[in-house]
Amino acid sequence: MRLHRPLRLAAAAALGVGALAFSAPSATALVPSESSGACLAGDAHDDAAAARGGGHAHDHREISALEQERIRDDVAGRLAAQGTSRREASAAAASVPVYVHVMRDASGNGDVTDAQIAEQIDVMNVSFAGGKSAEAADTGFSFYLAGTDRYSNTAWHQDQQSESYRAQTRQGGANALNIWLVDFDYLGIATFPWDYSSDPDIDGIRVQYSSLPGGSATNYNLGETATHEAGHWFGLYHTFQGGCTSTNDEVSDTPAQSGSTSGCPAGRDSCSLPGLDPIHNFMDYSYDSCYTMFTEGQSSRASQMWSAYRG
């Protein structure tokens, strides 16, 4: 299962319980040749492409009610098997190792700098710690750079044969966040934690390289695309999941909204249920400059999912 944050560039500019600690090894820099990462014949592009060049073409996949129920039951079963209560699981926190895979093309396009990668990790740490708003939750999760790989392969840069290149390059276990920086038709795509057991080799997030801090993605170049996709990796849905329903995204303190946000429309209220649309929430589709928070409910859900699947 994957969730997508669509690429919405301006037309002129053409997407366990308790604290766990890990020591950070030094970063690596691997540079395979173009031929060493060649596309495998018969591999298909694993995501339909949205038209590039402006507009708001969404590729959002709703999680069905049946699938949500299955996930709830699975989480409950896993926590029970661990002897962990939901209250205990809700307090889980961790320091997450991050492996960044820079997928540049044969001409070097997409080769972000080490400084941008370091700033990206800083952005995620501030956002997950609640550092952008007085109302924001401190999720208890932090990130450190465990390694950086650089590949020169045009097909990989264009996100072709994604399942193949992720399986060849992914590092770490269930607790490790792998970020592949590519050039594709979305701002980002993520896997969910409950899919790790069946597809561990492709677990992680793919992020449009131009969305890193200082990148060229207009309105989406402050690094919050990675924050959004990491939210999915922790098990959070979009805030507009389910639309104007009481269950919505299964988090009680994110008001329901009828659909995704574009820009930063203050006061937007698209549902008759209580509360304005959570346009400042990292799990909406707002501009990076509009993003300021995760809620306490989202923090608890992320911790429960961590305890069940990643801790």
Write the layout of secondary structure elements.
Elements lengths: L1 E5 L12 E2 L44 H18 L3 H4 L3 E12 L9 H15 L12 E12 L1 H4 L4 H8 L7 E6 L3 E6 L13 E4 L15 H10 L62 H15 L1
Parallel strand pairs: 2-3, 3-4, 3-5, 5-7
Antiparallel strand pairs: 1-6, 6-7
Describe the 3D structure:
- The protein is an alpha/beta fold and 311 residues long.
- It has a domain at 2-36 and 85-238: Collagenase (Catalytic Domain) (3-Layer(aba) Sandwich), CATH 3.40.390.
- The protein contains 7 helices and 7 strands, in the order ββααβαβααβββαα.
- 45% of the residues are buried.
- Mean pLDDT is 84; it is low at 8-59.
Distance between the termini: 20 Å
CATH homologous superfamily identity of the domain at 2-36 and 85-238: Collagenase (Catalytic Domain)
CATH class of the domain at 2-36 and 85-238: Alpha Beta
**Can you tell me the overall shape?**
globular
Please supply descriptive tags for the structure shown above.
single chain; 311 residues; alpha/beta; Collagenase (Catalytic Domain); 7 helices; disulfide bond; metal-binding; Pregnancy-associated plasma protein-A
Quick overview:
24% of the residues lie in helices and 15% in strands. The protein has 7 helices and 7 strands. This is Pregnancy-associated plasma protein-A.
